[in-house]
Design brief:
The structure is a homotrimer of 274-residue chains.
Chain A: H1 4-12, E1 15-19, H2 25-35, E2 38-41, H3 48-54, E3 57-61, H4 70-83, E4 87-90, H5 98-110, E5 115-119, H6 120-126, H7 150-163, E6 166-170, E7 174-177, E8 182-185, H8 198-212, H9 217-242, H10 246-258, H11 262-268, E9 271-273
Parallel strand pairs in A: 1-2, 1-3, 3-4, 4-5, 5-6
Antiparallel strand pairs in A: 6-7, 7-8, 8-9
Helix pairs in contact in A: 1-8, 2-8, 2-10, 3-4, 6-7, 8-9, 9-10
Chain lengths: 274, 274, 274
């Protein structure tokens, strides 16, 4: 179920339109190519609607948002909704500034998102809870590795109901909450949090996977999280055998996405349906 | 003939001013350093003319163009023309939006380009043909590896005549069309299309090479394409011996540019003058 | 003294707010994570003050400055001053355009900087001397490896007095001029100048180190320069044993920062107090 979507992406080669931050945009472009999709980055108001109309999915990432790109996000999002293309939101840094929180909230009001992916701080902020965001990374302690705290689950479900979107919360384990299913993804490696942009990359991949499996967005989102986590595990194995550090690890993660196969996913993926 | 230009770049260390997209700008900066040039990225309207006046070449790349950077492209381009510096155009994504196509057309009307480099979709769009652009990458089938289709050649020649620029069309093989010569460059590796920014990097290198050989721009453009293709071949050899993926490949391509010598170029370059 | 600050950064995990260029921003984010800090990049006028108020340090880098980001630099800088957070200036390309030189001068007038880090061309420009900037890199000859030229020292001291900031001048050897101390840092490797962004990365690290040692900014700045230089040396050793080029070198530098320990620093750091 999860592994087939990768094949579909490689067959379809979906064009994924990203309006995203300039910090990790290159990694997003390269990881999209690595998983078999094709990236197009375009954030000018005058071309956002036209570009999204030739794309199979739209990814809106609010890192380094600004007065020029925010209107493009709305225009592209509305057009994607009209055309029935999946739209993914990455509320980078929501909770860290009122501009980011308010923009994420406004986007959620105006645009139907297929998936919203963030860390627990960001998801808490936009779900209307108390945010503890300090920038763009969530500390490990914010998402316990043991049992899921009830308040975290209830927040995620609240946001899911409010938006109708599948919610992906990433951390030591990832949670993907769909309408009927709640997936727990136990893949990945703690060192991924030491690489800038792993969250943004997963969001971009989620866009590609959703375009390949529009009839079950929760499965697509869980599959993306599992696949990327598996890539992080394989990359860590290769890294430790060679003595590399965080920058080599970044490269290896993208490498492993480019070398991923459904077979490897089937063997390594650890997704539980609660 | 082709290999000497690399030496010249390394001796001159030309400053190359790039107004380019934020997706692949870091790769452009690093590949310019790797080939012996020096990059300067500057896109504000208030400094574009001043920066270009201390540079040896100007590269205009319209990926992620926007309302703020477009006027800077025109200002810098006109100034470079006045000063007799070579100006290179990379019409990234022309055909994908009317903003990009129109901006490329306007630039070609107002500015004399030494070289225009794009994939066949982009070149088709700006030559006034039927475009099939879907984003920024050309599918392999768009440029046949066997005989050159007559309509492709005729389009390239049409654009060359219209603009007076040398036209570089990259794909499974590269075509460099100058006033008198038509070079076919049979270097490179298909995996280069799986790395974001290989086209942008070649455009940046072309700027450096043109500044080093202003008297024969077609030779400079063909040399740049051949050198970069050879780097792609060497990088692929190193990659396969180590089992890497697309991100490591990206690094190795830039590595091989930094380790390139005229001797290596002479041995490996496959350029045919039709 | 120098090595302890790294431990402090790893314990504090300071949030470092960067308003920086889009060329090397990803490297700055990754090197901050590698040294134990946490990056947040935010340049919109409407969030700059709010973001800096949750950060432990602010880094202002004027590469690819523009009409939209310049006001954010001033707002964030003033707010950081009010809150007593260290602010670091990287005057990238000062001397190459009047916009850059004037912006750096205006910033120095309005904002109290803890550290200003640049190459000798940039520092010369903003100290009011004759600049020889050609873009963003300083040629090796601009900073002699032998004895310090008296006019270089006098310029640095002049800028220190004018601004009250610690001045870090990087080159074949780095000079860190504080109120009482003048440190000469003899770490690093010439190949670092072939990687785009090594200067920007050091500036970002300097922000993290200053937040960890606010009571002695000169020691923090010298420690950052020494640590980064040591990483460059270790990276070069690993590189040559594997036959890599400049892009692999870039990765290895960040790798070595992520693997740095106070013990390694103590052994390899070469800092002299004049």
């Amino acid at each position: 179920m999860f592994a087939e979507i990768l094949n579909k992406v490689r067959l379809d080669c979906p064009l994924v339109h990203c309006i995203t931050n300039y910090v990790t945009v290159n990694d997003c472009a390269n990881v999209l190519l690595a998983c078999g999709a094709s990236p197009v980055m375009a954030d000018d108001e005058r071309e956002a609607e036209e570009i999204v109309s030739i794309a199979s999915a739209l990814v809106i990432n609010i890192g380094t948002l600004n007065s020029r790109t925010i209107p493009s996000m709305f225009k592209a999002g509305r057009r994607a909704n009209e055309l029935g293309r999946p739209v993914i939101l990455d509320p980078v840094g929501a909770g860290a500034s009122s501009l980011r929180t308010a923009t994420a909230m406004d986007l959620m009001r105006e645009i139907d998102f297929a998936v919203i992916r963030g860390n627990i701080s960001e998801i808490t902020s936009i779900a209307g809870g108390e945010s503890k965001t300090r920038g763009v990374d969530a500390s490990a302690s914010e998402l316990l590795d043991g049992d899921l705290p009830a308040d975290v689950i209830s927040l995620i479900l609240k946001l899911r109901e409010k938006t109708g979107a599948v919610i992906t919360v990433t951390g030591p384990k990832d949670i993907v909450a769909g309408e009927k299913d709640l997936y727990i993804v136990r893949n990945g490696h703690p060192m991924m949090s030491k690489v800038s942009g792993t969250g943004c990359m997963l969001t971009a991949i989620t866009g590609a996977f959703c375009s390949a499996a529009p009839s079950d967005i929760a499965v697509a989102a869980a599959s993306a999280a599992g696949m990327f986590g598996v890539a992080g595990e394989f990359a860590f194995e290769r890294l430790t055998s060679e003595g590399g550090g965080t920058s080599t690890y970044r490269s290896y993660i993208i490498d492993e996405v480019s070398k991923m196969t459904p077979e490897k996913m089937r063997e390594a993926i650890k997704i539980e349906n609660r």
